[in-house]
Design a protein that fits this description.
This protein is of the alpha/beta class. 37% of the residues lie in helices and 16% in strands. It folds into two domains: 159 residues, Rossmann fold (3-Layer(aba) Sandwich), CATH 3.40.50; 249 residues, Alpha-Beta Horseshoe (pyruvate-formate lyase- activating enzyme). The chain has 17 helices and 17 strands. The strands form four sheets. It has a seven-stranded mixed β-sheet with strand order 2-1-3-4-5-7-6, with helices on both faces. The longest helix has 17 residues. It starts with a strand and ends with a helix. The structure holds iron/sulfur cluster. The site of iron/sulfur cluster has 10 residues, from loops.
């Protein structure tokens, strides 16, 4: 049986300023690698190619160099974000032009779910849209011709799946140029904590992978990278192990003499400091903390918590515990509808008081990802807060909606605050240390980074303040 090719769409533009550093991002699309891994375990040869910031033409050539010449199997194309839609459109057009018989299946649950007709309008070459998580069905979808599809009123075919997370590894040997990437391990799916801005707010949290399997996975990666250094991202939207899980991980990690370091994303109020200490001894080195805000009114508004006082107290305890355990904390800050100078300054003041506990910050305003026909009801929800649609950035594709957050805080004012916060709390070295832990390519070092800063400064007259804010 011939090889199944899977392509993770790249981007022509992105959320923040597109520059040399945003284009360096080299982050594994672990969702599509999961599908390839499931195929591989069923005895089907598979290969994943990631578009990143390369052009669709370049990726078509890359596929050809890997042996692709049109396939009897569907070509699986993942669209992980609305920013990737124009790329996928062009890529699919090129494929159909050069290989007219090639079937193209489009997936990427955050974009395609409930938008089958819209995605088929954007990508007319789509033969099938796969909604949801299709791990349990991918073998059948790629190898048989009698799948049970549904059809929209407009005649577009789609398949809806809701698969459980498989208890197996992501196979990095199936990822083209895998050695450029730091790997990810998928440890849980979903969250269900109800934050109003988050797509996972109402999707239940699955149990964590067993610690023994996680350690086995790290051992496999150690072999794959031939004992060279690599960092691992433990993928879970809300990583919240209990003490027992952490203890078991620690024991297995020690028993197997592992020394690999890893990163994860956590809430401030779901991990106890003792657990954090055990995780640190098991390789945890960076946490992405979804603080979002330190304004009590904004925290309530975004449904991050019902008890902002307790939430902020726990955030403080968490940051102190992390710092004591040698874990670097990067905080995510989100400006949300209803924001005022007062609420933003409450957040800034809270952060300033904890400057020594914070390695870096990622700050930005809420973006509403929705298509033209559905954006009005989404905006109306915030009307009483003075929220309105902002002028889009020139490269923004349809579906990306930037906001004036209130009568007081326009999109531009929020951008300025975001950039000020990043610069206030993060040096270029902090920024590099955080980005090189799972986001920059493995071979990109600090001197390369400094050379790129100099080059960007001299050619674009950008200050580091502008460069860092990506
Ligand atoms: S805790 Fe994080 S993942 Fe969960 S709903 Fe809130 S923002 Fe989303």
């Amino acid at each position: 049986m011939s090889k199944v090719f899977l392509v993770a769409s790249g981007m022509l533009s992105c959320k923040k300023k597109t520059n040399v550093f945003s284009k360096k991002q080299c982050y594994v699309n672990y969702g599509i690698l999961r599908l390839a891994s499931v195929l591989y375990e069923s005895g089907i040869d598979a290969m994943v190619v990631q578009g990143l910031f390369r052009s669709p033409t370049e990726i078509v050539s890359r596929l050809v160099s890997l042996g692709y010449s049109g396939s009897e199997h569907p070509l699986l194309v993942s669209v992980p974000t609305f920013f990737a839609v124009p790329w996928a459109t062009e890529f699919s057009r090129l494929i159909r032009q050069q290989y007219p018989d090639q079937q193209i299946f489009i997936g990427g649950q955050w974009v395609v779910n409930n938008r089958v007709d819209w995605i088929c309008e954007k990508i007319p070459e789509a033969d099938l849209v796969i909604c949801g998580t299709s791990d349990d069905h991918i073998v059948e979808l790629t190898t048989t011709h009698n799948n049970k599809f549904q059809t929209t009123y407009k005649g577009n075919k789609y398949f809806v799946a809701n698969s459980k997370m498989p208890k197996s590894f992501l196979r990095y040997e199936l990822l083209d140029e895998a050695h450029r990437f730091h790997p990810s391990i998928e440890v849980s799916r979903g969250c269900g904590r109800g934050c109003s801005f988050c797509i996972e707010g109402n999707i239940g949290l699955t149990p964590l992978q067993e610690p023994s399997l996680v350690v086995e996975n790290l051992e496999y990666l150690r072999g794959f990278y031939n004992h060279d250094s690599f960092y691992t991202y433990f993928q879970a939207s809300n990583f919240c192990p209990n003490q027992e899980w952490a203890l078991q991980l620690y024991r297995e990690y020690e028993k197997n003499h592992l020394d690999s370091l890893w990163r994860c994303e956590i809430r401030v109020d779901t991990i106890n400091p003792k657990t954090l200490n055990l995780l640190a001894k098991s390789g945890l080195r960076v946490i992405d903390v979804g603080l979002e805000s330190a304004s009590k009114s904004q925290l309530k508004r975004m449904k991050k918590t019902k008890d902002p006082d307790l939430y902020l107290k726990k955030a403080d305890i968490l940051l102190r515990a992390a710092s004591k355990s040698g874990i670097l904390a990067k905080l995510n800050i989100m400006f949300y509808p209803g924001e005022t100078h007062k609420t933003i300054n409450e957040t800034i003041s809270w952060l300033r008081h904890r400057e020594e506990l914070i390695q870096g910050v990622s700050a930005g305003s809420l973006i509403l990802f929705e298509t033209k026909d559905k954006i009005k009801p989404a905006i109306d929800e915030f009307e009483s807060l003075g929220t309105s649609l902002a002028k889009p950035n020139p490269d923004d594709p349809e579906g990306v909606n930037r906001l004036n957050l209130s009568n007081e805080i326009s999109f531009d004012v929020a951008e300025k605050y975001s950039s000020d916060i990043c610069n206030m709390l993060m040096s270029d070295k902090d920024y590099f240390d955080l980005k090189s832990f799972c986001y920059f390519p493995r071979n990109y070092n600090y001197s390369d980074f400094q050379a790129d800063i100099e080059e960007t400064r001299s050619t674009n007259a950008l200050d580091f303040e502008e460069i860092i804010y990506i």
